[in-house]
Amino acid sequence: MANNHATENELMITRVFDAPRELVFKAWTEPERLAQWWGPKGYELQVSKLDLRPGGIFLGSQRSPEGHVMWGKFVYQEIQAPEKLVFIQSFSDEEGNTIRAPFSGTWPLEVINHLTLTESEGKTTLTLRGGPFNATEEERATFENMRPHVQQGFVGTFDQLDAFLEQNLNR
């Protein structure tokens, strides 16, 4: 049976960045900024499209240091600049068609992410929560089993965002 909501045990990550909320939001929503930090360490992101509006998509490819290329997309559900982004994340082909993850036949086709940004004294608290969307029981179980790897991946990605923000504040 499909579930249109994130799992009860959804993933939640909170991180504080020493940067204003406006800059953190731009890092998520401007292609030239997103390309500098999103994804696993050592991977290169090529942004093919970023249409920031409800129903719009981000489409991009990541190239591993060994040359392996994976495509992915976000379909934006809600945008409240500079405090909130809601998007459904999927693996895709070059045209943006949703495909199965290259590493698992049971990884959810769609993962919904709720990103909120709050600012206090020049620092931004980012909260990301999300989980499988329109997923089968098997897909939800796969997500749950891989939760530690997903969290570890976001820690690394947010380390890169932190470094990007630090470089952009000092320019």
UniProtKB/TrEMBL annotation:
InterPro entries: ASHA1/2-like_C, START-like_dom_sf. Residues 18-166 form the Activator of Hsp90 ATPase homologue 1/2-like C-terminal domain. Pfam families: AHSA1. Belongs to the AHA1 family. This is SRPBCC domain-containing protein.
